[in-house]
Amino acid sequence: MSDRAVSARLRDEARSLDAADELRAKRAEFVLDDTVYLDGNSLGALPAQVPGRVADVIARQWGELRIRSWDESGWWAAPERIGDRIAPLVGAAPGQIVVGDSTSVNVFKALVGAVRLARGEEGGHPGAGASGGAGHPGEGRDEIIVDATTFPTDGYIAQSAARLTGCRLTPLAPADVPAAVSSRTAAVLLNHADYRTGRLHDLPSLTAAVRAAGALAVWDLCHTAGALPVGLDAHGVDLAVGCTYKYLNGGPGSPAYLYVREEHQARFDSPLPGWTSHVEPFGMRPEFEAAQGVTRGRVGTPDILSMLALEAALDVWDGVAVEAVRAKSLALTDFFLRCVAAYVPKGRVESITPEAHAERGSQVALRCEGAGDVMKRLIERGVVGDFRAPDVLRFGFTPLYVSFADAERAARVLAETLDA
Amino acid sequence: MSDRAVSARLRDEARSLDAADELRAKRAEFVLDDTVYLDGNSLGALPAQVPGRVADVIARQWGELRIRSWDESGWWAAPERIGDRIAPLVGAAPGQIVVGDSTSVNVFKALVGAVRLARGEEGGHPGAGASGGAGHPGEGRDEIIVDATTFPTDGYIAQSAARLTGCRLTPLAPADVPAAVSSRTAAVLLNHADYRTGRLHDLPSLTAAVRAAGALAVWDLCHTAGALPVGLDAHGVDLAVGCTYKYLNGGPGSPAYLYVREEHQARFDSPLPGWTSHVEPFGMRPEFEAAQGVTRGRVGTPDILSMLALEAALDVWDGVAVEAVRAKSLALTDFFLRCVAAYVPKGRVESITPEAHAERGSQVALRCEGAGDVMKRLIERGVVGDFRAPDVLRFGFTPLYVSFADAERAARVLAETLDA
Predict the structure, then answer these.
(1) Which of A284, A305, A389 sits opposite B251 (nearest CB)?
(2) Residue B43: inside a domain, yes or no?
(3) Are B293 and B332 found together in one domain?
(4) Do B313 and B324 fall within a single domain?
């Protein structure tokens, strides 16, 4: 078949797939142009609801009501309220997610908190004293295991958490965790999907292995929340964190979130006990007493503008089942890989994203010579992915707004770019 | 003189003072109504520049440029760029302030960092190992002193920093610090102004006493930055933090900032070493190596919407000298206290804010029976201050938009409210 005929057939197929796509109407809820935007795994596109909502938050809630908005506009309760909006997307019952701070800060809370839980340290009261928890059942646990292939910030923060809690840090490939986790392990920090390769790790079995050893499983959901079912409650995850600016489209640097499994909340002992995590924040008491529930994962004054932009962005999830998102995500990445195979001469790129659906997140990573330059040229031609050193082209597929026609065009422009 | 005549005279005086006020034109740069807004020490009023700027950040920078804005719209450099806008307001040369995270999180960075600096621990590299710094000159320093009258979050976070660094925590009244600080003290955390009474603490002499003992002075500027000269560089302050939503008008929960004195930056070893504080953030290297300069005070991805709202808010400072702000602030609080004395029957309220200018911040706190109810009624009548348990009425005076007429009206309505 001629190149032209191949292309015509793939374009036809894209049209059919788009026509049958039950999520296709969602695209209209985003501000998009004729760019093929495959960088939603770095910064999600702008949901159309956001500008008006933020304008109201600024002009009316801040500008007119001012301080009264902490009550009257629901500012104070936003971290838990928005947490409950994220909860169904990651398989969590209400009351276990609090929004605020960056992912890195939440990794710190989660890891130090996990070490303390694993050691059975008493916390949440001022007499807790120095670390060590002498005499507690988990006293001997002095190891944090971290995904060696992790997005670097998790590793840096894990290093700091280990240093401050007197643990050693053991970096391991996720597949090696079940054999390595032991009665010395306090906590294991894993990424649900590898930011570079797009590999999806097996959350249920890894969590089970960690818990079987008496350690706590802490998951970073940055690259999966909003792209596929996570099942935090169902799979027994202890703690989790995630950002909201990728598949959740919360905007640049929008607040992250922390999940604390209900059974751990009463003993969760945050290393960042700010005034808004106090049981009586306006009592202004000198002694700290932690709030009940996931509120103890809060720290300082919530960042309202960014938080309410995120809340508006979450409206696009109304009526959307994560299972449908996952089905489309896999269909999109399958189709993109087929188009790449059809268009790009053999040997020019190599997919490092697993073929097996069970091992694939919602991105495709292609190893490619001169990847940095190639991505620059792709962007000039209206196909936006990103480059990760030294040689990876990343293409993220956000099922709510990426079409099969986008996938076909991206592969075609990639081939043309490599040919030029 | 009759009540009516007293009132007429004070109103005349307010008019004269407002007419002579060199900052009076600044009021037009804020969105205000006929409310007397004396709660800018909790949430600053909306600067008129903000709505349009944020609309552009959302619609064009995020909505159109999307991921490209990290470079093209200057998102990446915002934390240091905006830090340099705050610097002259607190007496800091450029390159020493980074914006991001909440005040509480910055207190944690500053205090743990200060303890490590005091102990001479080597940091900023992955081999730093567990705390202790055996053999270093400051090894024996195992005490953090904290302002016992502090805004509670500082005390809670100081407790956590002490626990994680193996220090004991000593709460003291600021005046007792010089006698107590010793060769065992690593760091002292003080509030520049007391959030409840409005008392201004003597930053130069307290800093000198702390440094003379070989400890580090960490100041919380929440209640003074933007209200009076601070002089961080001139007075030898080691580290400082502050929020930006009070006298800096950055918006609800806007990002806080961290000041790291230039001489400490090369050894500043943050307990929250996120990916954006790495020397090569896009190198995605597994080993942490801290960036040069104050950038090592960063943690995760900067919260752009809130940060750029703050940047727009700082435009109101163009052409404003902090000394002029301070002069007006003192004149306003003096005048308000005179009006209260003239209007309110003796014994109904008692000022707990010091009379001496050198000991007064930019608020007046009045002890009053039934203060909670009184404040509710004041707010209903268009005079907005706030209530701090158990019996304090707080009135904050933001010189950029509060007028002498506001001060007179607030005192008059207070008297009427107490009379009713």
Answers:
(1) A305
(2) no
(3) no
(4) no
Percent of chain B with pLDDT over 90: 91
pLDDT of residue A150: 78
Task: Quote the pLDDT of residue A125.
Answer: 39
In a domain, A336, yes or no: yes
Q: Which domain holds residue B337?
A: 3-30+320-419
Least Cα distance to B210 among B240, B186, B232 occurs for B186
ipTM score of complex: 0.95
Q: Is B193 helix (H, G, I), strand (E, B) or coil?
A: strand
- Amino acid identity of residue B45, one-letter, is A
With an 8 Å Cβ cutoff, is B137 touching chain A? no
Judge whether A246 counts as a catalytic residue.
yes
Query: Does residue A47 fall inside a structural domain?
Result: no
Annotated binding-site positions of B for pyridoxal 5'-phosphate:
103-104, 151-154, 220, 223, 245, 275, 301
Q: How far is A23 from chain B (nearest CA, A)?
A: 21
Coil/strand/helix, residue B382: coil
Co-location of B328 and B298 in the same domain: no
Q: What is the model's pLDDT at position A131?
A: 41
CA distance A9 to A7: 5
Domains in chain A: how many in total? 2
Mean pLDDT of chain B: 94
Let me know: does A369 contact A347? Beta carbons within 8 Å: no
B284 touches chain A (CB under 8 A): yes
- Which chain A residues are closer than 8 Å to B171 by Cβ? 286
Mean pLDDT of B198-219: 98
Same-domain check for residues B311 and B334:
no
Which residue in B54, B163, B282 is closest to A54 by CB distance?
A: B54
A141 and A176 assigned to the same domain: yes
- Domain contains A337: yes
Residue A282: alpha-carbon gap to chain centroid: 32
Active-site positions of B read: 151, 220, 245-246, 394
**CB contact, 8 Å: A286 with chain B?**
yes
A112: closest CA among A254, A38, A216?
A216
Residue A132 sits at the chain B interface (C-beta within 8 Å): no
Residue A401 is a catalytic residue: no
Q: Which residues of A touch B379 (CB under 8 A)?
A: 68
Residue A78 and residue A227 in one domain: yes
Contacts B104 to A, Cβ<8 Å? 272, 274-275, 299-300
Confidence of residue B137 (pLDDT cuts 50, 70, 90): low
The CATH number of whichever domain residue B214 belongs to comes to 3.40.640.10
Query: What pLDDT, on a 0 to 100 scale, did the predictor assign at position B369?
Result: 95
Boundary (domain end) residue, out of A282, A317, A352 = A317
Residue A387 contacts residue A379 (beta carbons within 8 Å): no
Nearest in space to B115 (alpha carbons), one of B220, B209, B190, B186: B186
Distance CA B33, CA A374 (A): 55
The answer to whether residue B131 scores a pLDDT higher than 70 is: no
Q: Indicate if A220 belongs to the active site.
A: yes
CATH number at residue B25: 3.90.1150.10
Strand order in the sheet with A363-368: A349-351, A363-368, A392-396, A386-388
Q: For each successive 10 residues of chain A (420 residues), what is the average pLDDT?
A: 90 98 97 97 97 98 97 97 98 98 98 97 48 54 93 92 97 97 98 95 98 98 98 98 98 98 98 95 90 97 97 97 98 98 96 97 97 97 94 97 98 95
CB contact under 8 Å between A75 and B251, yes or no, is no
User: Per the CB < 8 Å rule, is B301 touching A243?
Assistant: yes
Residues B84 and B133 in one domain: yes
Q: Are residues A276 and A379 in the same domain?
A: no
pLDDT in tens, B400-418: 999 999 999 999 999 999 9
